[in-house]
């Protein structure tokens, strides 16, 4: 569409209709295919079709290359995890831009992985040995103290017995002492023992199981270790106890070994000899110092290696992602019968033809290929994808529309109107220029810091706000505008544009209202006169104003939607939709609600006291009765009869003619189809390309009629319900105003009236929290969702089909957005 009006490679911003697309075929020699696809990825203007959909991923030509890229990606992910553990951040940009090849990169990554794995294994082994020695040292200390105290106690007891023997026998001396001593000395009892550490949380169970397993033939002593120790097996810090277990016999020994293994108790050798223990303690201490030095050196080497990797990580990662995406794309291409060329098909914008051809020529030149790539346009009846060129301002609005449904190819795009109508309808419900300024300040912070925030990982909510920062900016600006119209600044009115037009009748202004006031000046020039706020007539006046304003806005937007359906029908050459959809719909809507909007404007202009409810109700119930005092203009009765008749006629006008005319067109199209003249191949392709895609489908009159019946009923009932739905503008605006007034009067002014600094500070804090939490967060979200519903349901259903699919080109710029 309109190539003549375009200048340069890229067209000007045009959001009304999607870009003209074409189905292209590329025939690329195999020797230049990799470079050609790489250049096309840099361009990002072709959406390739999968010509090998019937093949599994393992049956495709470049499955081995993709497997290689997947292995390199796995190694890079391993490096990233190691850098995260070592608190080393990858460099945002590579410090040394060296054009490394993929084959060289694969070798380098393999070497680095092997080296890093070896360093990790050595460090892990050394760390485990170090942790074992730390535990061994604790065992030597704690168990040594126990043995020393027991030996000292035994020595003292032996000296006491010796003294008793020297002093001679007494009456209290047992008769069999000599016999028992001689028996003990001839058959000494050899007790075995184990020492080690057991987790403190298992220590009581451990001791209980030992006692039961050996039937009490065991002696256990435990000493708590003050600080948690690192377990050599799990590598986690655990609170442990040092234990000493004395036993007798091989059976008890085997049982104790199994129990220690089951409870994860680490056993260590221990000598009863004090000299050997001192020697072992010295050796362990020296070994610990040596291991500490070795471990520190290993960690320094590991950190140095990770820093080297971090400098090049982003460059390597992008290169691997590019290679993998290139081979994925090459797998979508079919091999020519000669097995010397690859054939690709895909969608591209019409304006990108020259750029694609230049990229193919450049690939042929760079690879010294003897055969150049072939670019040709195919004609098809397939519906093209939808492509809108957006920028950082319009992209968020386009996402709002796309969330409802992607536009059909070249149908009218609601985004053009949503840029204005969405923030405006939001502001109608959020009208307060004080709150609007708060939103504006918050949004300006996001906009001024967008370069910094764009490269950071934000939370879900902040990420959403940052993506829609320009939507919030427009919402804030329109909120300031509507707030000035409502004359509300945190619910407080100001005489910004002049003095009030009203004054009190008496000096006391007792029971002041507009009825009890006189007009002393010119009408307030812009917005609501501040005298209305706080008067007894405030609520009835603002209710009437906002309710009628909501109806006017709703009917205007619905009329815009119906008018856009005309432009769609005219663009696609659907004359039946113009005559039997657009015209009756515009007549029906305006015969009823357009007329109501006219009555509202006339009543505002004339100051009439007519009851519009009465006029609209009796327009249907008693259309021939006289209007009496509810007449707003001469000939109103006749006009109402004509409008009512047009509304009644427009319903069968929408329902009946279109299905019968479609049936006649179908029969006429297929009449005499048995014999058709032969055409050339190119003409046949062009005819098929311009042919109605539904031309050869089975025509079911009953289905078409039922569809038209549903569409008619939906529009007639929707005209009423949609108009009523716009009253949410009035309801939410009133709720926002009243909440703001309550917070100001019942919190801030009430705290001010106590003449107490503490109460005033508390009142200000409560007022700020309520304003931010309720009005600036909850009310903003509520108004946003209601504005979204008005656009999706009440506006877009008049003209927007939204059954297209988005243009998703093969582009390297999207690789950075992939989740690691």
TrEMBL record:
Function: Essential component of the vacuolar proton pump (V-ATPase), a multimeric enzyme that catalyzes the translocation of protons across the membranes. Required for assembly and activity of the V-ATPase.
Molecular function per GO: ATPase binding; proton-transporting ATPase activity, rotational mechanism
Entry's Gene Ontology BP terms: vacuolar acidification
Subcellular location per the Swiss-Prot or TrEMBL entry: Membrane
Keywords: Coiled coil, Hydrogen ion transport, Ion transport, Membrane, Transmembrane, Transmembrane helix, Transport
Chief location category: membrane
Record-given protein name: V-type proton ATPase subunit a
Membrane topology, record value: Multi-pass membrane protein
Transmembrane segment boundaries: 424-448, 469-486, 549-567, 579-602, 638-656, 757-778
Family to which this protein belongs: Belongs to the V-ATPase 116 kDa subunit family.
GO CC terms, sorted: vacuolar proton-transporting V-type ATPase, V0 domain
Coiled coil feature spans: 102-136
Record bears the keyword Transmembrane helix: yes
Pfam families xrefs: V_ATPase_I
InterPro entries reported for this sequence: V-ATPase_116kDa_su, V-type_ATPase_116kDa_su_euka
Organism expressing this protein natively: Nepenthes gracilis (Slender pitcher plant)
């Amino acid at each position: 569409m309109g190539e003549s009006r375009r200048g340069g490679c890229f067209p000007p911003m045009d959001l009304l209709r999607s870009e003209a697309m074409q189905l292209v075929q590329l025939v690329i020699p195999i020797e230049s295919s990799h470079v050609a696809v790489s250049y096309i990825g840099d361009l990002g203007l072709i959406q390739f079709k999968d010509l090998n959909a019937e093949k599994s991923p393992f049956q495709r030509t470049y499955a081995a290359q993709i497997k290689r890229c997947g292995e390199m990606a796995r190694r890079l992910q391993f490096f990233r995890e190691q850098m995260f553990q070592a608190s080393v951040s990858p460099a945002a940009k590579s410090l040394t831009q060296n054009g490394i090849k993929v084959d060289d990169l694969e070798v380098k990554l393999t070497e680095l992985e092997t080296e890093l794995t070896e360093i990790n294994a050595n460090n892990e082994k050394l760390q485990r040995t170090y942790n074992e020695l730390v535990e061994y040292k604790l065992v030597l200390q704690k168990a040594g103290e126990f043995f020393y105290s027991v030996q000292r106690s035994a020595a003292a007891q032996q000296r006491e017995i010796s003294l008793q023997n020297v002093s001679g026998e007494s009456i209290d001396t047992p008769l069999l002492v000599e016999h028992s001593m001689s028996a003990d000395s001839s058959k000494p009892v050899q007790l075995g023992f184990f020492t080690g550490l057991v987790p403190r949380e298992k220590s009581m169970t451990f001791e209980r199981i030992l006692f039961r397993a050996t039937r009490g033939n065991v002696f256990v002593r435990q000493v708590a270790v003050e600080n948690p120790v690192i377990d050599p097996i799990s590598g986690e810090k655990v609170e442990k106890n040092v234990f000493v277990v004395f036993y007798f016999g091989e059976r008890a020994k085997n049982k104790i070994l199994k129990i220690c293994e089951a409870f994860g108790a680490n056993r260590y050798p221990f000598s009863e000899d004090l000299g050997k223990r001192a020697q072992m303690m010295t050796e362990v201490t020296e070994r610990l110092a040596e291991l500490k030095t070795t471990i520190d050196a290993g960690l320094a080497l590991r950190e140095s290696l990770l820093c080297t990797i971090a400098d090049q990580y982003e460059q390597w990662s992008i290169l691997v992602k590019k290679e993998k995406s290139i081979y994925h794309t090459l797998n979508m291409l079919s091999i020519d019968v000669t097995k010397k060329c690859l054939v690709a098909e895909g969608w591209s914008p019409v304006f990108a033809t020259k750029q694609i051809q230049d990229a193919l020529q450049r690939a042929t030149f760079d690879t010294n290929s003897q055969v150049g790539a072939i670019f040709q346009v195919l004609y098809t009846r397939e519906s093209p994808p939808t492509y809108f060129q957006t920028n950082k301002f319009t992209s968020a609005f386009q996402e709002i529309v796309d969330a409802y449904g992607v536009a059909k190819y070249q149908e009218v795009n609601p985004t053009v109107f949503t840029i204005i109508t969405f923030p405006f309808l939001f502001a109608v419900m959020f009208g307060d220029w004080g709150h609007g300024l708060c939103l504006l300040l918050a949004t300006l912070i996001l906009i001024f810091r967008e370069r910094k925030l764009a490269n950071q990982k934000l939370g879900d909510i902040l990420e959403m706000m940052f993506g829609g920062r320009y939507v919030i900016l427009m919402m804030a600006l329109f909120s300031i505008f509507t707030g000035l119209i409502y004359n509300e600044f945190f619910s407080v009115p100001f005489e910004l544009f002049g003095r009030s037009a009203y004054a009190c009748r008496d000096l006391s202004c007792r029971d002041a209202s507009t009825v009890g006031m006189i007009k002393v000046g010119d009408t307030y020039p812009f917005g609501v006169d501040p005298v209305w706020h706080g008067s007894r007539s405030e609520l009835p006046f603002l209710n009437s104003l906002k309710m009628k304003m909501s109806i006017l806005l709703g009917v205007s937007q619905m009329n815009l939607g119906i008018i856009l359906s005309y432009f769609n029908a005219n663009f696609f050459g659907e004359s039946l939709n113009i005559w039997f959809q657009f015209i009756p719909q515009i007549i029906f809507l305006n015969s009823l609600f357009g007329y109501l909007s006219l009555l509202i404007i006339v009543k505002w202009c004339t100051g009439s006291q007519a009851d519009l409810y009465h006029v609209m109700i009796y327009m249907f119930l008693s259309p021939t009765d006289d209007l009496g005092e509810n007449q707003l203009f001469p000939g109103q009765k006749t006009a109402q009869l004509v409008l009512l008749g047009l509304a009644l006629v427009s319903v069968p006008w929408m329902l009946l003619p279109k299905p019968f005319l479609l049936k006649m067109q179908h029969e006429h199209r297929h009449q005499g189809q048995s014999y058709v003249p032969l055409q050339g191949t190119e003409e046949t392709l062009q005819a098929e390309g311009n042919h109605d895609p539904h031309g050869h489908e089975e025509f079911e009159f009953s289905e078409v009629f039922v569809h038209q019946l549903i569409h008619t009923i939906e529009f007639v009932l929707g005209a009423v319900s949609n108009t009523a739905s716009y009253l949410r503008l009035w309801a939410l605006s009133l709720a926002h105003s009243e909440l703001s007034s309550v917070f100001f009067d019942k919190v801030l002014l009430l705290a001010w009236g106590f003449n107490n600094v503490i109460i005033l500070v508390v009142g200000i804090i409560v007022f700020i929290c309520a304003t931010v939490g309720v009005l600036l967060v909850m009310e903003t979200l509520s108004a946003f969702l209601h504005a979204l519903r008005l656009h999706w349901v009440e506006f877009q259903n008049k003209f927007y089909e939204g059954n297209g699919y988005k243009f998703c080109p093969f582009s390297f710029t999207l690789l950075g957005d992939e989740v690691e």
